[in-house]
Amino acid sequence: MALFGRSPFKPIQAHMEKSRACVERIKPVINSIIDDEPAEFDRVFKEISDLESEADVIKNDIRSHLPKSIFLPIDRRDLLEILDIQEELPDTAQDIAILLTLRPLKLPADMKEPLNNLIDEVATVCNQAADMVQEFDELVETSFGGPEAKKVLGMIEQINADETVADGTERAAAKKLFDLEKEVEVLDVIMWSRIINKLGDLADSAERMANRLRLMIAK
Amino acid sequence: MFETLSPFLGQSGGWFSETQVFWIYLIAMGGGFYMAWSIGANDVANAMGTSVGSGALTLRNAIIVAAIFEFAGAFLVGSHVSETVRKGIFSNEAMTFLNEDGGRLYVYGMMGALLAAATWLLTATYFGLPVSTTHSIVGSVVGFGMVIFWNEPPGMILWSEVGKIVLSWVVSPLLAGGFAFLVFISIQKLVLHKRDMVNSAKKMAPFLVFLVFLVISLVTLYKGLKPLKLDWTFTEALLGAVSIGIAAALVSIPLLNRITVEEDDPETAHAQNPVISEDLARMKTKFKKLSLLATGEVEGKLKSLGAKIEELSAEVEEQDQPPAGKTAGAGAWGTPQMRATEKIFIYLQILSACTVAFAHGANDVANAVGPLMGVIGVLQREGQIVSEQLAGHWGLYILGLGGIGIVIGLATWGWRVIETIGKKITELTPTRGFSAEFGAAITILVASRFGLPISTTHTLVGAVLGVGFARGIGALNLRVVRDIIISWVVTLPAGAVLTIIFYYIFKASFG
């Protein structure tokens, strides 16, 4: 009798590690465009694509092992929801990489700093979300309560705070881009503005994951 | 075989001839022994699988411990349920009716019930259906009652008793689930949610040791030690049990203090996700099957791929094996604090596994020896009185025989099942395993005292679900609940119908 289903918590952590690796590669991939290094760009672009499809495989495996008859220590829908949001991280990272291939892009020197600031802050938020997901097995071990749960709630607070900071940086970067609209080609402005939006989306996704996890702990 | 039997075919009236008695003994003992063997082979894994899986016991030690406790449970507490199976569902009128022809029909019926249950178990095991020995034997005995009393006035079969037994099958998993839920919630509150988990666990553990010993010794001492001529009253038994519990708790304290928190060990760090070895094993069989189907070049390629996967699988298994002295299940996750806590519970889990083995022996031995006792009782008194106690120490001998049958089943086949189950249950860490086993063991022991034949497997499943509802387990497959209900619905009529067939065969052969 198959009393025990396959626990989704280890696989979801594996998926998050792929996602984290994708997000970490956004900085090199964008900078390879700015610094005009096509070989480096191709290499990192391929890494992102590979990681994204690996994450996809893990996600499908988790989903196919979570039929309705599986009973989890948390609401099954919450878990599937968190997985869906988590999937947005590698997806968005790949979207950004693809945007960079659509047309040759130039970035004014003054944009480099605000853009890199934004990338760093987004990466920080996503990293924290990944650290949070890595606590899943400890949360299961303590059945989502006690000091372990408090620790994770603290991490969630931190993610919320840092996402707000990243929001501000996103606005600043966008503002700077439009301040420079005279020096930049219109199409470049559109493309960079979309990229900045996507970067903001990454931090949003991380925050939404954190809020979902808060619900799981509060159950 | 039929040549030997033929002189007796068609004989009627009078008592059984010596040769017939020999055959009846042979069939009843054979059926009873097979049932006991099958209980030992399939069900003992329930008790010991988790302890082997968590690394608390080696396979060899688990089998020795299980053998001791199964036998003790069967021998000391097994008589209550056996009496129920033997005569519990028949009314006094029914017994008088059965005595009228010297208990002949009863002998055929009980032999039929034994063989029917054994046949059904064999068939179900062959098709991989999870069925309970308890349900098989109860269904069979009811079936035999139905065929004998078909033309008699109603009231021969105590349907209220049958209803009580069936109700106990619903209640026991629920009760075990409730107990396990409470035990695990207390462990959560008192240990897992404390900042200093290890010391909280060390404080709580002696109480749990006390409880385990209290329960097991109370059940044994209160009317349990009759075989040893110790018939204690409840107060005496309670006093004895409390003293044993306190003594055990005191002994446990210095042992617990030896456990220390170990920092992360890089040696255990590279153990693979259990999913990997599981899937590799599945792929191994898949490739084997495919290479059987394929021909030519494809076959060779499939075979070499299969060989590579087998190699990899062996490699992963080796990595997953903990180094000597380390534990696998608990070592794979959590912080050092959590691992030390689980380690404390590994020892408690050995105790709870023993209690389950004891309880299992107490309840399930009846499935094998209940009908056997009935048959032998009639033969001993040459068909005088069906419902009386067995003469002399025969009841004990038969219980002992059942216990030995269980142990043989365990030794010949059961270890294999324990090994497989132990590998599968990586999810059930010692804190969970202890809660589930303790909840199940209390339920089974209480049921045994009331003479209720329940399914230990289903009770344990209920207990595990109870821990799950306390948010204790990573992923539970609720489809088992459906499987359990199906096994009830199928087993009862199957046992009944098979018994009726065997009953007519015996009636025709023995006259």
What is the count of β-strands of chain A? 1
Greatest interface (CB-CB under 8 A), with counts per chain: A-B, 31 and 38 residues
Number of helices of chain A: 8
| Separation, N- and C-terminal Cα atoms of chain A | 29 Å
Residues in helix, % of chain B: over 70%
* Largest pleated sheet of chain A: none
What percentage of amino acids of chain B are in beta strands?
under 5%
**Low-confidence runs of at least 5 consecutive residues of chain A:** none
Describe the structure.
- The complex is a heterodimer of chains A (219) and B (511).
- Chain A is mainly alpha-helical and 219 residues long.
- Chain A has eight helices and one strand; from the N terminus they run αααβααααα.
- Chain B is an all-alpha fold.
- Helix content of chain B is 77%, strand content 0%.
- Chain B has 20 helices and one strand.
- In chain B, helix 7 (104-126) crosses helix 20 (479-510), helix 10 runs parallel beside helix 16 (336-380) and helix 16 (336-380) runs antiparallel to helix 17 (394-424).
- The interface between A and B is medium-sized, with 31 and 38 residues.
- Strand 1 of chain A pairs antiparallel with strand 1 (476-477) of chain B, so a sheet runs across the interface.
Task: Supply the key terms.
heterodimer; A: 219 residues; mainly alpha; 8 helices; B: 511 residues; 77% helix
Question: Layout of helices and strands, plus pairs?
Answer:
The complex is a heterodimer of chains A (about 220) and B (about 500).
Chain A (H helix, E strand, L loop, with lengths): L8 H16 L1 H9 L3 H27 L5 E2 L4 H27 L6 H25 L2 H6 L4 H34 L6 H33 L1
Chain B lengths: L1 H4 L12 H25 L1 H10 L5 H19 L1 H10 L3 H9 L3 H23 L6 H16 L10 H34 L4 H25 L12 H24 L8 H4 L4 H20 L2 H25 L7 H4 L4 H45 L13 H31 L5 H20 L6 H14 L6 E2 L1 H32 L1
Helix pairs in contact in B: 2-7, 2-16, 2-17, 3-4, 3-16, 3-17, 4-16, 4-17, 5-16, 7-8, 7-16, 7-20, 8-16, 8-20, 9-10, 9-18, 9-19, 10-11, 10-16, 10-18, 13-14, 16-17, 16-18, 18-19
